[in-house]
């Protein structure tokens, strides 16, 4: 074991995941990134988070290389907007749930044995403000992110006595490549409805993750939502 904390971040190549990896490294952490693309981390592993075996092998490899594991952050995902519920195909439902919920389950399952051996550490899932408030034209995405919240709350209860903390961050619309330039959430009319009148930045979401991982020792099964006032 070392004195340098170690984090694995899924979806670490861009957006919120990349911001989390950067901020944790700046704070002195070792980081491993799991993504379809190369990530700017101490250990970059290219994989699909829906592949249970590859995720487990990558997490085991990171823990072996760095001597321990202290944190898993699940930021991998994608977004589809502007689809009426009746138009969402079975394939779209299956893929969204497999990536967002299934990918989170795979990452948490791979990390848990390492955290249990230490009797400490954290699991932090990136959900969405839409899982708290709902949305009319991206139901499969909202349902998947809502399922992640259920997973977090239930797992937090299951492992709290072990010293492992499980929490979620549910950002509002965030200025990342996942949010298309013509997205509804970028329109001036929508931004005007937000008390802060702007999108959230990936760095703001990452700072929430870092807070939960370090100072937020009182949080268990909680959902912190940096959302510019979209949900109050």
UniProtKB/TrEMBL annotation:
Keywords assigned by UniProt, alphabetized: Membrane, Oxidoreductase, Transmembrane, Transmembrane helix
InterPro entries listed in its UniProt record? NAD(P)-bd_dom_sf (IPR036291), Sc_DH/Rdtase_CS (IPR020904), SDR_fam (IPR002347)
Per the record, the domain of life is: Bacteria
- Keyword Oxidoreductase belongs to the record: yes
Q: Where are the transmembrane segments?
A: 6-24
Please give the family membership noted in the entry.
Belongs to the short-chain dehydrogenases/reductases (SDR) family.
Protein name in UniProt:
SDR family oxidoreductase
